[in-house]
Please model this.
Amino acid sequence: MKESGLRLAVSMVDLTTLEGADSPEKVRSLCRKAVQPDINDPGLPHVAAICVYPELVRVAAEALRGSGVHLASVATGFPSGQYPLDVRLDDTRRAVEAGADEIDMVISRGLFLAGERGKVFDEIAATKEACGEAHLKVILETGELETYDLVRQASDLAINAGADFIKTSTGKVQPAATMGVTLIMLEAVRDHYLKTGKHIGVKPAGGIRTAKQALHYLVMVKETVGDDWLTPDLFRFGASSLLNDLLRQLAKLRTGVYVADHDFTEA
Model:
């Protein structure tokens, strides 16, 4: 049971690099790890997706071709969202044209907190249109939303504006993902499903570092929205450091001993 949970969690990871020093070779290395997370466990599933900046999408698309790993790109002025809308939409279109099949956008928290909910809705809807066939993950940056009530309101707004996934955080603001805000978001997608029959995904991102934490999240998913969401199509972890701990725990089950962190590559 524990092993199946760990393997499921591996398949739900969005392996991410979003640093100013990102290079083509770093992205290629990350893609290799995404496709085969542990060379000593060839039956292990690949991760759900690679997530990179728009300028590195073509590099990742070439490295991932035929692998089944999705390619996500942060667009729309990540992480602040404080760019003119036409710039954010162009960013989105260029990322999709370069090969991204998922776009992770950030909402304008300033507009949302100022009560300009209609403008935020319109920006999400416009970004969804700019995505074409690509899926849209809407980042709420819950650490800046202050209350659970506002997290719920932002979740409902994003869902109604066309989000395919709602995501907690950019990982650049603390607090990032917590079980509390993730529960609120799961309740939002559950209630939307009960009203419409449509499934919306949830992605906690930032701060989830251990296999134990990941398993706790999976239990919460099962108890809140049910088995339908226990798939990378509807639940993801935006937590690159999590992958190595999942691999360590699986290696312990396989060999009977813990391996060191440095036995797994960072990318």
